[in-house]
Amino acid sequence: MDLYFYNTLTKRKDLFKPINPEEIRIYSCGPTVYKDATIGNMRTNIFQDVLRRVLRYNGYKIKHAMNITDVGHLVSDGDEGEDKMLKSAREEHKTPLQIAEHYTKLFFDDLKSLNIETPEIVCKATDHIKEMLEYVEKLMENGYAYETSTAIYFDVSKLDKYPILTNIDVENQKAGARVDVDPEKRNPYDFALWIKAPENHLMKWDSPWGPSYPGWHIECSAMGQKYLGDQFDIHTGGIDLIPTHHENEIAQSKGKCGKIPANYWLHGEYLLINGGKMSKSLGNSPDPLDLIDKYGADGVRVGMLLCAPAGGDLLFDESLPEQGRNFTTKMWNAFKLVKSWEIADIEQPEHSRLALAWFNNLLNKVTETLNTQFDQYRISEALMTIYTTFRDEFSSWLLEMIKPAYGQPIDRQSYEQTVCIFEQLLQLLHPFMPFITEEIWQHIRERKDGESIMYSTNGNEKFTNEDEKLLAEIETVKQIVVGIRAVRAEKNIAPREELQLNVVNSNVNEKFASTVKKMAKVNEIQTISEKDGLSASFMVGTTEYAVPLGNLIDKDAEKAKANAELEHLEKFLASIEKKLSNEKFTAHAPEKVVEMERKKLCDTQSKIATIKETLKNLG
Questions:
Q1: Rounded to 5 degrees, what are φ and ψ at 177?
Q2: 355-360 own/partner pairs: CB under 8 Å, 24+ apart
């Protein structure tokens, strides 16, 4: 399957063409470990996890590096202020190392709880001071960096183009790097590569320029090059990193080796809460572990993905992970139902054969829809497509159609086909819900050691016009069943009561008669030319269906209800007639308004006539 990514570098959806098809190399900007991660941070990590799983599903091997920023990230993302690690250390009365170790551990606990895969390479900034120094020295040697009394700066004016990812007018940007504004800077938009440390600065290292520490941007350039090379496939991160961090990574790479480090730049949008940005510094995020405790990891993942429509703002609402939790319950219930069936070597019923043929055809069509949505990067819509397919079509219709009668076994053929369908649905859901899909997949049939849903394959046939016909026929069956169920509910007829279904002036589709009888508890279906007065009727398309009520209803209660409805409609009719008899209204009101009132008049008169006929038949 062709993959298309929205590429911030080109500002369009690009066909993915790997540098080496044998191995996809990805670099992700990881956390600055000075505070707990927010659910917004985790949403970006979920996006990166889905990306990994989609790539692997398409047969690619992955080499993925992610940094841990434990030095050099200053309070302002505009390159000035205090180091976030030092600020947090001071506030919590700990050393920067203690702060880094504590919040790094919590970050990986969050990833594990959400079943977010850990990248193959995790690299800490403080473990790569040597590589960063060598990188800065090379930039100096190439003429792209210069020294002041406070820092080593990157000279942006030496580039052929800056910025590349954004259309920012750098001439009007605020001056500043990860230090206060330096009057020695050659250009106001130059940024700090290496910062000379004051005597009392806690985090500093020996360098050719004396005791000092790295700027924020240099770590990703140095570690990305060390582990992935001068150029790799994909660079990911949050959208907030585009105008500063990622622009400056590109600048550094062009200064050192003349290349843009990644071919595809993928960014996660801000997660909004109460109309504003969710962030660690603002302290306005629900705790990820609290949400996981309440809704489960898969529930939180579903919630994060449902709030992410393609091209739109990401609006977090706690009802979304709650919706995800309820869906995981639906999946467990479906699994427990299927596993509870006793299996026998008996003939497959016709209604089961047709139901399974219908769903396989539906799944073919759903898979085509999903492929289109993935191609267009509409991930939230893709999740909703498979979500509704499982919840509505599989759980509410297919399983009910094939479910054996109480105490009776299911035929082996239907059971095996159902398990195969269940497995395909789990495979489609797995990138979104890796915990529950893996667990159900492992237990729905016997597996060998080492088998995983991550490496299972899923094939679907091409959708045809014949499939479309079957889908339309089953849709008609579903509407008939819904109509009969509505009659039961309206007339308070017990579910165990068997009903008769009459088809008015139309032929019965015998192929699906057994399905209707099973799903709606109908004992007989026949064609009639005229319904009797005590029938409840409904329309499916242009065909009228009638359920004879006979002794199934309380006639006195039905009379009382009909008389109450008649009284209400007659009063409503009188008000419409009064309005339409008012010449001022008909002369001055807009024509559409008058026409609507006349339509209300006709509709109400028709309803009154129907109720009077019903009362007449009730005696």
A1: -125, -155
A2: 355/397, 355/398, 355/401, 355/402, 355/474, 355/515, 356/398, 356/402, 356/414, 356/417, 356/418, 356/421, 357/470, 358/398, 358/470, 358/471, 358/473, 358/474, 359/393, 359/394, 359/398, 359/421, 360/417, 360/421
- In this predicted structure, the answer to whether residue 204 has a pLDDT above a threshold of 70 is yes
Q: Which has the closest alpha carbon to 18: 71, 70, 63?
A: 63
Q: For residues 371 and 54, what is the distance between their CA atoms, to the nearest angstrom?
A: 12
Question: Of 128, 99, 130, 131, which Cα lies nearest the Cα of 31?
Answer: 99
Q: How far apart (Å, rounded) are the C-alpha atoms in residues 341 and 343?
A: 6
Range 5-12 contact pairs with CB under 8 angstroms and sequence separation of 24 or more: 5/234, 5/264, 5/266, 5/377, 6/266, 6/377, 7/264, 7/265, 7/266, 8/165, 8/242, 8/246, 8/265, 8/266, 8/267, 9/164, 9/165, 9/260, 9/262, 9/263, 9/264, 9/265
pTM of the model: 0.65
Tell me the pLDDT tens digit for each residue of 79-98. Answer: 455 566 677 777 777 777 88
Question: How far is it, in rounded angstroms, from Cα 498 to Cα 512?
Answer: 18
